[in-house]
Amino acid sequence: MQLMKQANIDQFGFLIHDVARMLRKRFEMRGQEHGLSSAQWRLLVRVVREQNATQARLAELMEIEPISVSRLIDRMEQAGWVRRCPHETDRRVKLVVPTDKSLAAYSAIKAMAGDVFQAAMAGLDEDQQQALVNALATVVENLATDETPAECSASRIQADT
């Protein structure tokens, strides 16, 4: 396997960072249409998808401190986006559940996300879009393991034979 050219290596990190920052910025702008900050709409999506998640689980999914999630949930609960319910077997644990308001907004937010992603990939044909998604999934998979890149390449080569 040919190694990435130095120029590509130098650009890779900056491009990934810039794409993530620009997507967050676009989502922030569009999320304001619903009166939600970027952190709030990210939590709303997690709450709707997870259904009955604990605050600890939401903190883990969002990769933020539990106290930050708790404060975020406080604000969203006051605004009617989520509610806390007692856990069936552990009274110390509260489950965070979506309200009808958040369920109704979820489809609009999902459609808005689709618009943002479509705009981000404008100019790429379907094959290029699929190749980009596949490549990014591979990057995530590579980084999600404890293996080094050389070990990842060796495992793929062995898997292919």
> Major beta sheet, specifics?
3 strands, antiparallel
Total beta strands? 3
CATH superfamily of the largest domain: Winged helix-like DNA-binding domain superfamily/Winged helix DNA-binding domain
At the fold tier of CATH, the topology name of the largest domain is: Arc Repressor Mutant, subunit A
What string, H for helix and E for strand, traces the elements in order? HHEHHEEHHH
Q: What is the terminal separation in angstroms?
A: 15 Å
Helix amount, in percent? 55-70%
SS strand fraction: 5-15%
Gyration radius, in Å: 20 Å
GO molecular function: DNA binding; DNA-binding transcription factor activity
InterPro entries: HTH_MarR-typ, Tscrpt_reg_MarR-type_CS, WH-like_DNA-bd_sf, WH_DNA-bd_sf
Protein name: DNA-binding MarR family transcriptional regulator
Organism: Hoeflea marina
Feature tags:
mainly alpha; 2 domains
Would you give an account of this structure?
With 161 residues, the protein is mainly alpha-helical. The chain folds into two domains: 17-120, Winged helix-like DNA-binding domain superfamily/Winged helix DNA-binding domain (Arc Repressor Mutant, subunit A), CATH 1.10.10.10; 124-161. It is 70% helix and 7% strand. It is built from seven helices and three strands. A three-stranded antiparallel beta sheet has the order 1-3-2. Strand 2 and strand 3 form a beta hairpin. Helix 1 runs antiparallel to helix 5 (100-120), helix 2 crosses helix 5 (100-120) and helix 3 crosses helix 4. The longest helix has 26 residues, at 6-31. It is globular. The two termini are 15 Å apart. 14% of the residues are buried. Mean pLDDT is 84; it is low at 152-161.
